[in-house]
Amino acid sequence: MFSKKLIAIGASFGGPGVLRQFLQTLPPEIPGMVIALHMPAKFTELFSERLNEVCRIEVREAGDGDRIMPGKALIAPGGRDILVVRRNKEYVVEVIDGTLIDRVHPNVDALFSSVAKAAGANAIGVILTGMGHDGALGLLEMKQAGAVTIAQDENTCAVFGMPKQAIDLGAVDEVVPLSQLTQAILRRI
Fold first, then answer.
1. Which residues are designated catalytic?
2. Nearest-5° Cα angle at 87, 84 to 92
3. Considering the chain, what is the average pLDDT of its residues?
């Protein structure tokens, strides 16, 4: 079964703990997810395996050509970027060596931009804790393509940089604390 909707998530500093807390609250029938987390190579596979053990959804490191499926979260391999493309009725992940955007990989802007093109209004974009501005422009692209966009609030972020940049750019529909993120997404599906 393919995912009609998809959720794209970006995070950086503080992201592993936030993602663990968030992903553990998700029901198995949640739309498929793609996640870009600023993390070095070799760490994302172990991180994905640990999350898979404690979540009701399947969590794993993304591989080139993986289908985005309900109840599954695909995390970009450390040091590489993931893009979402549409093949027939399915959303599929492409893993690439990296774009030149910000020189940060996995790159949130690259992921969000690809989701805007592939899924448009069938997507939800979520920007979580992190330093810098990666993700703000891509989230704006998603919003302009009709996607719902959500940012983590300042009080629950380790670093409010990435969400703040997206909010200041006008890329965010809703700002929520981490404890309300799952409900905010479920309301929008």
1. 12, 38, 134
2. 35
3. 95
